[in-house]
Amino acid sequence: MNRALCPGTFDPVTSGHLDIIERASALFDEVVVGVALSPDKGGGPLFTIDERIGFISDATAHLSNVTVQPFDTLLVEFAQSNDARVIIKGLRAVTDFEREFQMAQLNYRLDTNIETMFIMSIPEFAYLSSSAVKEIARHGGDLHGLVPDAVCAALAERLTQSH
Ligand code: PNS
Q1: Considering the entire predicted model, what is its pTM?
Q2: What residues flank ligand 1, with Cβ below 6 Å?
Q3: pLDDT tens digits, 57-76
């Protein structure tokens, strides 16, 4: 069984993330999407862990080999506990490289049995990020196609409430 792990904070999941998850699901027998609690990232996530998991589960319901789980440990420990030997990350522009390179090196230092592999983002999503999505939503911009419709609606609701 070749199982891969797609980790991230996914606050919220974007079409770019979903493209990487879908392409990974075509390459591996099973894909576990690991949603990091990341309580400290950027002043705390906008969406709760259950909301973030729900958005991804709904958007990947058509992919029978994809499951979604929370984690709050080291990534390599989460990979070990899921018997996954491959971590899949998406790479967008060259600006991602330095951070991803550092994480891949450290994770390899922590467990040499686990390999990090990268899938290049398609050009359409190369500049898409969860933070950009939140900023666009805050200003009432059009997000259709950049996030699932349910995320669009939840962003509008959440960001209106916080004003
Ligand atoms: O979506 P993100 O924020 O780029 O995802 C980052 C994530 C969650 C993959 C990363 O922060 C992570 O692996 N966190 C778990 C803690 C850990 O293992 N840190 C050491 C990696 S260098």
Answers
A1: 0.96
A2: 7-9, 36, 38, 41, 74-75, 103, 106-107
A3: 999 999 999 999 999 999 99
